[in-house]
Amino acid sequence: MRIINLILLPGLILLLASIRLQAQDTDPIFNANAVLTVENSLASDSMRGRAVFTPDIERAADYIESQFRAAGLQTWNGTDSYRQPFSMIRAKLLSISGTVDGMPLNRDSTVIISSTPHLQLDEHSGYNTGFIKAGEDLRARALGYVGEKKNYLVLVDTSFSKTFPRLNRLAGQQFKSDFNVVFVLATTNAAHYSLTAEQEIKESKLANVVGILPGKGKLKKEYVIFSGHYDHLGVRNPDARGDSIYNGANDDASGTTAVILLARYFDQLKNNGRSIVFAAFTAEEIGEYGSQYFSSQFDPAAVMAMFNIEMIGLPSKWGANSAFITGYERTDMAKILEKNLAGSAFTFYPDPYPGQNLFYRSDNASLAHKGVPAHTISTTQIDIDKTYHTPEDEIGNLDLKNMAAIIKAIAISSKTIVEGKDTPSRVDTSQLK
C-alpha cells in the first residue's frame, strides 16, 4: 500500500496543481468586476440603446472590435477589420395592382420581398409557386422561402388573415437581393396571375463584429461559434420615470459581454483544436438579420456547435448557478456540457418555456435550421420579466456575480467540443417547423 501511494502521489500532486492553475487562469477573467466593465461600456446611457441605423451602434461596434483586438483574435476573412459588413434594403410599398385567379390584389392581401423599385410579373415570368398551409409556422416558412434565393409567388392560407400583416416586417427590412418573393393571402392555386408594384427603396449598411481564434491541424477547418447580439431598441418615448433610453443591459449586452470574456479565456488557454468564431450580431431586434447573414457565410457541415448567449443577466427560475438551453432535446450537446460540468455547482436545464418557441426566436435559428447543433443559452424568466424591452433593462438590475458564473460554466462545459474531443449530434431538420 505504501508503494502504491508513492506511485500515485506525483499524479495526485499534478492533478491538484492543474486544478489550482485552472482556477487561477479563469477567476481573473470570469468575475463580477470584469462583467461590470464590459457592461458599463455597452449598456451605459452614452450608448443610447444601440439601435440599428444609428451612430450609437457604430460606437458599440468600435468597442467590441477593440476588445477582440485586445484578446488577440484574428479578423474576419483576414481583412483589416473585425466588421462583417452587409447591406439592408428598406422597402416602402407605394402602389400595387393585379389579380390572382380573378381575386384583386391590394396592400392587405399582398406582401412583397424585393429590392426592385418597379416589379411586374405574371404566370409567364417563370416564378416558382409555394404554399403556406393552415397550422404551419407562418414566419418560419416565410423565411424559408426568402432564404431559397429564388423567385416565388407564395400562397398563404386565409387562416393566417390576422397574422399575415406581420410579414410586412420582412418587407420593411430585407437583404439586398436579385430575387423576388411575393406572398398572397389566398386559397386559390394561382393558375393565372399578374402583379405590378412600385416601391421606394433605401439601402443601408450594417455590420456584425466577428473575430476568429484559428484551430490546429485537420480540425482547423471545423468551427465552434460563440455569439450574442449587440443591438437593442435605442431611444424611444419616455416611460413613467421619464427615461427614454432602452439600455438593453440584459438584452443582449449580457450575451455580448459573455462573448468578449470567452474570447479572452480561450485566447489565453490556447488549446483549441477547432477554430473558434466569436460573433456579435447586429439587427437581431428587427428580425435576426445579422445572424442570418453570418450563417450564410458558412458551410453548415463545417460548424460543429454554436453557443448563442441571450439574456443571462438575471437569475433563472432555478436560482443561481443555472441556465437553460433552447432546443435541449434536439441534439446531445446539452449532455456533453453536463458531463464536463460534473461535480460543479452549475446545472443546465431544458427550456422551461416551450410555448414561447424560443429555439426559433434567437440568433441560433438560422444555423439550427441547417442542421447545426446551434442552441441558445439563457436565464430569462420571460413569463415574469418586467424589464424586458423597457428602459428598466439597466446594469443596476443585473446579477453580475451570477453572470460571471454562467459565462465560466459555458467556458468549462464547452472545452471538449472546442478541443475536438466531443462532437454534438446534428439537428434533425425534418423535425423542424
Please tell me about this protein's structure.
The chain is α/β, with parallel strands linked by helices. The protein folds into two domains: 26-87 and 205-431, 3-Layer(aba) Sandwich (Aminopeptidase), CATH 3.40.630; 103-191, no CATH class. The chain has ten helices and 18 strands. It has helices spanning 2-26, 32-42, 55-70, 138-147, 168-172, 249-269, 289-296, 333-340, 365-368, 400-419, and strands spanning 74-75, 83-100, 103-104, 110-113, 118-122, 128-132, 152-156, 174-175, 181-185, 193-213, 223-229, 234-235, 245-246, 275-281, 303-309, 322-325, 347-350, 374-378. Strands 1, 2, 3, 5, 8, 10, 11, 14, 15, 16, 17 and 18 form a twelve-stranded mixed beta sheet that branches. Strands 4-9-7-6 form a four-stranded mixed beta sheet. The termini are far apart.
Task: List key phrases describing it.
single chain, 433 residues, alpha/beta, Aminopeptidase, 2 domains, twelve-stranded mixed β-sheet, four-stranded mixed β-sheet, 18 strands
Q: CATH topology of the largest domain, which one?
A: Aminopeptidase
- Measured by DSSP, the beta-strand proportion falls in 15-25%
User: Structural class of the helix and strand makeup?
Assistant: alpha/beta
Average residue pLDDT: 91
> Low-confidence parts lasting 5 or more residues at pLDDT below 50?
1-26
Shape: globular
By CATH's scheme, which homologous superfamily of the largest domain applies? Zn peptidases
Distance between the termini: 61 Å
**SSE string, helix = H, strand = E?**
HHHEEEEEEHEHEEEEEEHEHEEHEHEH
Helix coverage percent? 25-40%
Count of individual domains: 2
